[in-house]
Amino acid sequence: MSLIEVQALSKSYRNTIKEPGVKGAFKHLIHPKYEDKVAVSHVSFTVERGEKVAYIGSNGAGKSTTIKMLTGILLPTSGKISVNGLDPHKNRIENTKNIGVVFGQRTQLWWDIPIIESFKLLKDIYEIPGPMYKKNLEIFCDILGMEQFIHQPARKLSLGQRMRADIAASLLHNPPILYLDEPTIGLDVAVKEKVHEFLNYINKEKKTTILLTSHDLADIEKICDRIIIIDQGTVIYDDTIQKIKGELISERKINALIEDTGNVLEEKLKNLPVTVIREDTNKVSILFSQNEIAAVTILENMLQITGIQDFSIEEPGLEQLIKKVYNGTFLIS
Amino acid sequence: MKKYISLFKCAVQETMIYRWNFFFGILSKFAVTIVMFYIWRIMFKSNQIIAGYTWESMKVYLFVSFLCTSTISWNAEMSMSKKVIQGNIIADLIKPVNLRTVTLVQAIGNSFFSNLCAIGIMFYCAIFIFKVSLPTDFQIWISFLISIGLSFLLNFILSYIFSLFSFWTSNAYGIATARSTISNFFSGALVPFELFPPLLARIAFLLPFKGIVYIPTSIFIGTLSGSEIYHALMGQTIWLMVLWGISNLLWKQAVQQVTINGG
Questions:
Q1: pLDDT tens digits, residue range B172-209?
Q2: pLDDT single digits (tens) B109-151
Q3: Is residue B263 over pLDDT 50?
Q4: ipTM of this model?
Q5: Taking a C-beta distance cutoff of 8 angstroms, is the pair A299, A312 a contact?
Q6: Pick from A288, A214, A77, A109: which is nearest to B94 by CA?
Q7: How many residue contacts between A and B have a Cβ separation below 8 Å?
């Protein structure tokens, strides 16, 4: 059995509809109207122990709702969830011992008391053995660089500090599963890197399964090895990151700075499956597909007729890929 | 158990951070009682006895009613509703804790020191300034202490039940106001039941609110005696158990209603 099993999971919210103006407000008071909005619809997936999964989609796609159902906070409208063999909503308290949760937009730290006091409280709440708590705290402080602010109350921390403290807080009890809902929202690059390093460390050392939602593709590329894309409440892609890159796009672009040799280059490459774009007398871009020709072959051909001062190969970022998946311009097998 | 003791310590720490808030919190506890004190004093200027109360026994009534109603602060009452509405209840729901116990412990912790100070000051004023005569019978003190303990729990469970409604209404202030108005009236915190019209008095006796002020106060003053005290304490206990059960049922419904707005 997989660690996390989600089967045909659906959730709809009941929203009130209010007509505009005072009249509408009055009408709403007497006779409220509702509509059901489907947030998640028949989502199924499984996650194995130790996997690092990115759960992504555009705003309002249903990511957070899924996470909240997995944590047991929200009751699914229909469908089945099993986390470590438990139904998270029915066995909420039992389930919480297996999971760590970080909601980037909220904090679970006490606002007015020092971070270290919040941690001590968590130690007692999760009944963490003394040595384990001490060891975890030491390692977390070290990797996340928390020494300077651990004696400050949460309200005095910067966003980056607070987020690091929140991530540490969610992992003190060594949960086998970690859910992160936009853990790097609003963080600077240096802090993001610390967070990436830390999550990879945790996954490697403790085999913690990570399920993460994010709009930041650096998070996904640096941490995750699998990607689930949902759109309008349904799963539209679920595979490894390597595969999405290989399968969806094999296009590459060589940018080269060459000697001024006139049109010889175009002549030379005429019979190869490439498109040459001359941007300047000594600056060219060459578009090709990795499946049809290797970059080395192109370079060899070029070197036969011209010197190359500088070159780079661009591969499309995950961002562009995902944009294409959203737009439906790419077929998904 | 240890987790709740730690939680209590954190809740106590939390209230001590904002000093002025703390001091004004204590002051505000006295405001209503002081107003009531002077209103009654004027009334007793023209009457020796009102509905069976002398000025002496009315002073005791006000004193004890202060003790009973000040145990749960307005903030503690609002905190649960606020958590539900602002979505911070998430932080509690992802932890292995019982939400009612958390709320109870936080309510006690948040009002612990301010209550201790307020009760101390009130005892001082009652004995040395207003010359309230305290009971001398040891048994009355024992039953009174049990009764005020039950009063505290009743007060808590009622405000907890009302705050659970915020899962449906998405509004905290209205619910807390409604509760405290109903509770103040039907507990006898504003006026003793003896002054109610007969019909209202009968209703008041049927409701659980009487256990918050009227019963402990009556024990303290001595209007109840012997087996009456015993019955009154039993009444408080039974109501407490019934309401505890209701809060369980309500919680099961409420937790299915959770919708976390935003994010």
A1: 788 888 888 899 899 998 889 988 999 999 999 999 99
A2: 888 888 888 888 888 988 888 888 888 888 999 999 999 999 9
A3: no
A4: 0.84
A5: no
A6: A109
A7: 85
Residues of chain B in contact with residue A153, where contact means CB-CB under 8 angstroms, are 17
Where do the structural domains in chain B lie, given as residue ranges? 2-254
Least Cα separation, residue B86 to chain A (angstroms): 10
Using an 8 Å CB-CB cutoff, list chain B residues near A121: 3, 6-7, 10
Secondary structure in 3-state letters for A254-311: EEEEECCCCCHHHHHHCCCCEEEEEEECCEEEEEEECCCCCHHHHHHHHHCCCCEEEE
Give per-residue burial for A100-126: e unless 16+ CB within 10 Å, then b. Answer: bbbbbebbbbbebbbbbbbbbbbbbbb
Homologous superfamily (CATH) for A250-315: ACT-like. Chain A, domain 2 (3.30.70.1150)
**Rg of chain B taking only CA atoms, in angstroms:** 19
Domain formed by A49-246, architecture: 3-Layer(aba) Sandwich (3.40)
Contact A236, A332 (CB under 8 A): yes
Pick from A90, A88, A98: nearest CA to A67: A88
pLDDT of residue B44: 92
The Cα B262–Cα B87 span in angstroms is 8
Q: Which two tokens stand for residue A22?
A: 């005072």
The angle that helices B19-46 and B99-124 make with each other, rounded to 10 degrees, is 60
List chain A domain ranges. 49-246, 250-315
Q: Tell me the residue length of chain B.
A: 263
Give the whole-angstrom CA distance, residue A253 versus residue A259: 19
Listed residue (A160, A169, A179) closest to A115, CA to CA: A169
**The two structure tokens encoding residue B100:** 């009612």
What is the biggest distance separating any 2 CA atoms in chain A, rounded to whole angstroms?
83
Residue of B5, B94, B262 lying closest to A73 (CB–CB) = B94
